[in-house]
Amino acid sequence: MTKAERQLIFDKYNGRCAYCGCMLTRGWHVDHLKPIRRKQYKKGECRYPQRDCMENFMPACASCNINKHAMKLEDFRQLVAGFMKHLNERNTQYKIAKRYGLVVEQEQPVVFYFERMIS
Questions:
Q1: Phi and psi for 60 in degrees, rounded to 5?
Q2: Is 28:61 a contact under the CB 8 Å cutoff?
Q3: What is this structure's pTM?
Q4: pLDDT tens-digit readout, 16-45
């Protein structure tokens, strides 16, 4: 990918992650909105090569891209929606911070930044 192509992808959402909306910093990733599925294929090959195109590239912060991995968008949405439940079940520091009022939970649907931008 050329530097100019990376810049176009970066500019797609004004230097923000397409998923969480944070400002992108050095080391940001280029994600495939619809996964190309490299897993189980020879190096350099993928299952959906037609998806390896500018229209399918999304600017992403490292944490969103790493968590999304090769998931479909709806699977990633479900993963993010389950984070609060997981924190409440397994993370003692989170539960203590919540008891002290440092964390206020909000039940709401997961809407990605790029979805808010196109509405």
A1: -145, 145
A2: yes
A3: 0.87
A4: 999 999 999 999 999 999 999 876 656 667
